[in-house]
Backbone:
């Protein structure tokens, strides 16, 4: 055991043993078993999903609560703070790569597979013999016209509004950050609630848009490659916005409970970074999915 | 090199001779332990490239492993108690970065040249469309209206069953023989249009150095010009499900005139006749995996086949027994792979036919599904009305099913 | 303020040591406990995967179908690969990182101990799900570990379990990787500059970047499979404008870096062991670091060399051929540096050194066949034959697996405070080396002569090669029992050896891990040590 004598400032906080990670795994596995059962319509029913989800959410809550306590209890030195920053950066990077897979699919479909089906390059025969008469256009649901005719959502309509909403929310959260750093807690909390509201508004419009797409435009997951890429990209993004909004709410409540200090408030910054990431992904979506 | 040399010798010692003897069974120009030199200009270039890279690696290996072995022998503590302490030299690093780079260029240039040749499918003399099915190949001579399926030969098919008890070494060309080979002329630039009907397959014939994936929904083009007449064998190279190992390829290259003759023989009604005969024949053996193919089983199908070749489906309707007997053999050849000999299938992918709604239900619907296929099930329109009527009757009246007889006429009606 | 608290809470933690019983392992946040768990898990998976490979080899012993149905054979092939890669090699390397990285850079634990625990405990569940599919109707996944659609979409009830198991493994790898990166970037002992870090730390740092970059891409790819099968999307269906080949591109964008994920830590291990037993500084430390980095970079632009036969445009085929060939250059630099390190050293050949040298020989052979595969026009002949199978087993088994075995022999005295049996270690090495070559060398010939992959039966002229291969496989498998007994012997002191080993178990070894007692105490380096020139594994100061 290390000598208890000298405690140089770089002494690192080693947390006590914990059962949360294990329990969280149990929760997640219950969920995936439930979902698998549902997908393969086995008899087990939906209960593992709800049970697992409930457990997971509870654990995650307790886990972060614990971290918040440790942090407020001042157990974290400068080094732990750096750790969390690095970790958050790399986590966000991994998220970026996850989206990259779907952007890649969109790119491939638009610039390669559709033109090929349309007989471009070395694939003329493909078009003539397998898909006679098919012309590569975008948007497209493929030579078999899967899911039937559909219309797309114009970029400079609700999506534009949503873009503005997210950009503004990026602004409001930055204002909140400044307020926090200047120890002006009231305004900070106000700006935060504004951000939360904008996030919620975005989600509302997004939901409206989906309903509109399914009911009026006949644009569905089944609408060939366009529907696939459109809903997977916007869908996963929406999911991230939802998570982000929840995180924002938690942080705001913590602020109201007097958490965070002007000089150290990584919990806040981490969520802010995440929110900016969600924001940037949306810009990408707006340009390549809706606009171009 | 020690490991390598040592093993090569061991290999040679134990296996090579035998392998070399058995080799002609598959690729005549390979010695059983190396790539075939093949029978096309391309295949020979590819072989030359292969050997060139191989020797490059051998030389580098000799140098690197030589140095290692040297130092293992002479720089051990017993021989060299006091280690030297050099540990860095930018010059050396640069040298052994540069040299491999140069070597690589010496490989890349000829490789690129060959590759460019291979991809040039322009001005071909004839085109053949190749379609992969789970688990057989379909060949379509474009512009000749000659087309047929090519499946694993009956004898191999019987021998390859689990615990068939057949001595596979006695089976000629075990697993690389088919009922109907792809016949092509020598000396012509032949363009292959390769695609698939279900999953991804890959059409590979080593001796013409052609391997291309068959992608459903897309067509890949590749070409060859075979120089010597002969029989060249290959296999499906891309994992395509349970019988991936059982969809071989046989290419028969004939002199132009013989090819012409073959082609005319294929044209007209005969093609049909061929098919059903072919379909029927293998079955006979398959039906009796123990290889004791009794005349009865052999003849029966062919008679009926001949019968329906006389293209008058309405004519004297075969009896239920005839249908059942032939149906069983057609079933074994075409359906058993998925639905199993006892009809129970392999759920969930391959549903059971025992008491199945489709089989017990409306005959017309079942005929349609067999003709057109459904989900994983390929269409069987290429079988003759008689064969289809027989096999459908068989499914409707076996394993406790009892749903009445279907006549060739009924099938014809649905086409 | 903050500081005072830090201290009591701390003093509280480390003195109550580990808990007792099973709960210790479930709740532990200690890098050594988790390292041990990872290694035992990997060990188990190696043997399950090994047993599957024996089913494969047994069926292939002679032509004809003797034991299993083709469908089950394909399940074995698929599961064998998934278990070995995601359950064997990767967790084994993570386990070694858990044990060694903190001790090598002189910190108390990984940066995120609880996340570390989570990352581990996901694995047993993930593989529980995956292996359970063997007992479902429709059986386990049989589409190959590459999961190509449309074939993989024919999987039965196992399908969603396959997908979610992959997702879970992804989460585990990403959390593990983030943990390693953060620890290395943030918690090095004073004096340990980046260019003084042990190479095992360097290679793991770069491996972790690769993991964070590509595991999410795999997750995305399999997610698209899921929606294609159940939610009517058509990413991989031509009829809807998609393309089955698109999956292959996304998969191999993950898949090729993945293969380097399985070899870079091995490079690190070998670069640690050879200097120790050559009693000489690693030759060209800096160039080793740069070579590793460039291999990692190149690994992102070569993926399509796995798909030369799908009918890419000529330009693509040429680009990926050239890019792939380039990787031979930095890898060569590594090999040459290892040889130069041995050169005029004062070598002894304890078991870890034997496995390290075996690695250099046999990995290089695997590398050569890799280079041959990179030549597009010839790969048309090699592709999907046993030549490929031979290639990647040379780099994976006497490559990755040998390095893991070497690492375990090298560090287990430090972990357990007991020395393994050198004699049996040597026996283990020679048997392994002989049998592994007997297993995989003949596969080169079978492949060249025309035997395709993923088949349960073959044309008769391949018989001899397969007979040899099967004998080798069984021999190799049996030989591993020597290893188990030797290692468990160290863990539980079966051979009653009560030794008090010196801190520096191998007299030629450098590095902070050799400055702490053997066995290493439950908590090491709570007060960061000062890195002395003597322990620095980087290029010696005077060189700069
Ligand atoms: C640890 C894993 C690992 C490693 C390190 C490698 C290393 C390499 N691999 Fe391999 N590979 C796999 C694992 C690995 N591979 C797997 C699992 C598959 C099959 C996947 C599947 O389909 O299931 C595969 C398949 C595979 C293919 C596809 C084959 C096909 O399916 O048709 C190709 C093609 O280019 C390839 C190439 C290479 C190359 C060029 C290297 C290079 O990195 C090798 C570099 C090393 C050397 C060259 C030797 C040392 C160098 C010198 C001594 C210097 C001088 C040498 C020269 C100048 C020649 N590999
Ligand atoms: C790391 C990966 C890995 C490893 C270790 C192995 C190990 C082995 N493999 Fe595997 N194999 C693959 C990865 C691997 N394989 C892949 C990716 C494929 C392609 C699958 C596909 O086509 O989809 C494949 C396919 C494959 C085939 C082709 C199947 C086919 O195409 O149909 C064959 C056939 O002989 C085979 C055989 C073997 C054998 C005999 C071993 C033997 O070496 C097994 C014996 C090994 C052990 C018993 C483990 C020993 C390890 C230790 C003792 C380490 C101790 C651990 C710790 C201390 C933590 N493998
Ligand atoms: Cu068809 Cu493999
Ligand atoms: Cu690769």
Residues:
């Amino acid at each position: 055991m290390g000598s208890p004598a000298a405690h140089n400032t770089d002494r690192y906080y080693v947390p006590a043993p914990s059962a949360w990670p294990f329990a969280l795994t149990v929760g997640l596995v219950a969920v995936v078993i439930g979902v698998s059962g549902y997908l393969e319509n086995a008899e087990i029913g939906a209960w593992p999903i709800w049970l697992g989800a409930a457990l997971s959410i509870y654990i995650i809550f307790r886990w972060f609560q614990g971290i918040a306590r440790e942090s407020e209890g001042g157990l974290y030195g400068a080094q732990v703070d750096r750790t969390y920053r690095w970790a958050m950066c790399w986590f966000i990077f991994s998220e970026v790569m996850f989206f990259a897979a779907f952007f890649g699919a969109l790119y491939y479909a638009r610039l390669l597979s559709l033109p090929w089906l349309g007989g471009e390059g070395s694939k003329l025969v493909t078009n003539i013999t397998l898909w006679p008469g098919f012309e590569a256009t975008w948007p497209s649901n493929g030579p078999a016209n899967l899911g039937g005719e559909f219309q797309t959502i114009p970029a400079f309509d609700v999506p534009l509004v949503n873009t503005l909403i997210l950009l503004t929310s990026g602004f409001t959260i930055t204002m909140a950050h400044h307020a926090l750093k200047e120890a002006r807690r009231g305004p900070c909390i106000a700006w935060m609630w504004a951000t939360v509201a904008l996030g919620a508004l975005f989600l509302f419009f997004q939901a409206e848009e989906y309903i509109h797409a399914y009911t009026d435009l006949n644009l569905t997951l089944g609408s060939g490659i366009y529907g696939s890429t459109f809903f997977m990209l916007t869908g996963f993004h929406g999911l991230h916005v939802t998570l982000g909004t929840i995180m924002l709410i938690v942080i705001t409540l913590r602020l109201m409970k007097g958490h965070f200090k002007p000089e150290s408030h990584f919990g806040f910054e981490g969520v802010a970074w995440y929110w900016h990431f969600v924001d940037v992904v949306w810009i990408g979506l707006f340009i390549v999915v809706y606009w171009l | 090199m020690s490991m390598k040399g040592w093993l090569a010798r061991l290999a040679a010692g134990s296996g090579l001779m035998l392998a070399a003897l058995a080799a002609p069974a598959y690729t005549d120009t390979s010695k059983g332990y190396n790539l075939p030199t093949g029978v096309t200009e391309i295949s020979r270039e590819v072989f030359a490239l292969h050997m060139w890279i191989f020797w490059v690696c051998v030389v580098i290996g000799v140098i690197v492993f030589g140095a290692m072995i040297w130092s293992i022998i002479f720089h051990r503590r017993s021989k060299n108690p006091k280690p030297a302490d050099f540990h860095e030299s930018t010059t050396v690093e640069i040298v052994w970065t540069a040299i491999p780079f140069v070597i690589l260029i010496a490989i890349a240039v000829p490789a690129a040249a060959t590759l460019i040749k291979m991809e040039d499918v322009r001005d071909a003399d004839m085109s053949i469309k190749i379609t992969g099915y789970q688990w057989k190949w379909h060949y379509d001579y474009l512009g000749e209206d000659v087309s047929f399926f090519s499946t694993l030969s009956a004898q191999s098919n019987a021998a390859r069953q689990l615990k068939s008890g057949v001595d596979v070494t006695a089976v000629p060309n075990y697993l690389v023989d088919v009922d109907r080979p792809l016949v092509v002329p020598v000396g012509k630039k032949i363009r292959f249009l390769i695609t698939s009907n279900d999953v991804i397959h890959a059409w590979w014939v080593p001796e013409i150095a052609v391997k291309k994936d068959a992608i459903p929904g897309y067509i890949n083009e590749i070409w060859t010009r075979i120089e010597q007449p002969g029989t060249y064998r290959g296999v499906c190279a891309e994992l395509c499900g349970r019988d991936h190992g059982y969809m071989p390829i046989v290419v028969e290259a004939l002199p132009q005139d013989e090819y012409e003759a073959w082609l005319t023989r294929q044209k007209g009604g005969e093609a049909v006749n061929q098919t059903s005969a072919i379909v029927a024949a293998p079955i006979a053996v398959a039906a009796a995996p123990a290889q004791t193919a009794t005349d009865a089983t052999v003849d029966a199908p062919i008679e009926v086949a001949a019968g329906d070749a006389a293209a008058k489906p309405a004519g004297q309707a075969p009896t239920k027994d005839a249908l059942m007997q032939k149906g069983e053999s057609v079933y074994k050849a075409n359906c058993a792979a998925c639905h199993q000999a006892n009809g129970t299938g392999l759920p969930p992918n391959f549903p059971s036919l025992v008491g199945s709604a489709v089989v017990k239900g409306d005959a017309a619907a079942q005929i349609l599904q067999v003709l057109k296929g459904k989900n994983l099930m390929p269409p069987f329109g290429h079988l003759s009305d008689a064969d289809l009527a027989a096999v459908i009757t068989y499914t409707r009246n076996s394993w406790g099913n009892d749903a009445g007889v279907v006549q060739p006429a009924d099938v014809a009606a649905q086409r | 303020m903050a500081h005072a608290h830090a201290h009591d809470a701390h003093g509280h933690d480390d003195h109550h040591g580990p808990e007792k019983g099973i709960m210790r392992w479930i709740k532990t946040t200690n890098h050594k406990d988790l390292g041990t768990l990872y290694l035992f898990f990997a060990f188990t998976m190696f043997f399950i995967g090994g047993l599957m490979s024996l089913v494969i080899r047994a069926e292939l012993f002679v032509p004809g179908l003797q034991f299993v149905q083709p469908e089950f054979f394909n399940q074995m092939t698929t599961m064998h690969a998934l278990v070995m890669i995601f359950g064997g090699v990767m967790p084994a390397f993570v386990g070694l990182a858990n044990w060694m990285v903190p001790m090598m850079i002189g910190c108390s634990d990984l940066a995120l101990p609880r996340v570390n625990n989570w990352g581990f405990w996901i694995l047993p569940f993930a593989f529980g799900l995956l292996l359970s599919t063997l007992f479902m109707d429709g059986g386990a996944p049989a589409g190959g570990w590459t999961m190509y659609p449309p074939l993989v979409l024919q999987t039965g009830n196992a399908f969603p379990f396959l997908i979610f198991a992959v997702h879970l493994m992804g989460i585990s790898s990403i959390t593990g990787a983030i943990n390693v990166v953060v620890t290395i970037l943030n918690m090095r002992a004073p004096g340990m500059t980046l260019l003084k870090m042990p190479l095992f730390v360097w290679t793991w740092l770069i491996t972790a970047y690769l993991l964070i970059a590509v595991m999410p891409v795999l997750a995305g790819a399999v997610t698209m499979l899921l929606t294609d099968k159940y939610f009517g999307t058509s990413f991989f269906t031509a009829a809807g404008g998609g393309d089955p080949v698109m999956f292959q591109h996304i998969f191999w964008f993950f898949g090729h870096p993945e293969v380097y994920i399985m070899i870079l830590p091995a490079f690190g291990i070998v670069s640690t062991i050879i200097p120790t037993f050559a009693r000489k500084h690693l030759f060209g430390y800096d160039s080793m670091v740069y070579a590793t980095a460039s291999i990692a970079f190149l690994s992102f632009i070569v993926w399509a060399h796995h798909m030369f036969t799908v009918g890419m445009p000529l330009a693509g085929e040429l680009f990926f051929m050239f890019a792939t060939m380039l990787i031979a250059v930095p890898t060569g630099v590594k090999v040459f540096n290892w040889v130069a390190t041995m050169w005029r050293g004062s070598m002894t050949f304890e078991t870890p050194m034997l496995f390290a040298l075996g690695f250099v020989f046999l990995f290089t052979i695997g590398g050569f066949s890799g280079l041959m595969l990179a030549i597009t026009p010839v790969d048309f002949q090699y592709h999907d034959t046993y030549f490929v199978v031979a290639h990647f087993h040379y780099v994976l088994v006497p490559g990755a697996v040998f390095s893991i075995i070497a690492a375990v022999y090298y560090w287990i005295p430090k972990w357990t405070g007991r020395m393994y049996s050198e004699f049996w270690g040597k026996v283990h090495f020679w048997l392994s080396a002989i049998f592994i070559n007997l297993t995989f060398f003949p596969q080169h010939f079978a492949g060249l002569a025309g035997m395709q992959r993923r088949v349960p039966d073959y044309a008769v002229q391949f018989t001899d090669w397969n007979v040899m291969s099967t004998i080798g496989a069984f021999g190799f498998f049996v030989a591993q029992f020597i290893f188990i007994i030797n290692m468990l012997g160290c863990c539980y002191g079966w051979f009653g050896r009560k030794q008090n080993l010196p801190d520096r178990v191998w007299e030629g070894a450098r590095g902070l891990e050799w400055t702490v007692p053997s066995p290493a105490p439950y908590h090491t380096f709570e007060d960061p040590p000062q890195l002395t020139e003597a322990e620095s594994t980087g290029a010696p100061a005077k060189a700069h």
About this structure: Residues 41-74 of chain B form the longest helix (34 residues).
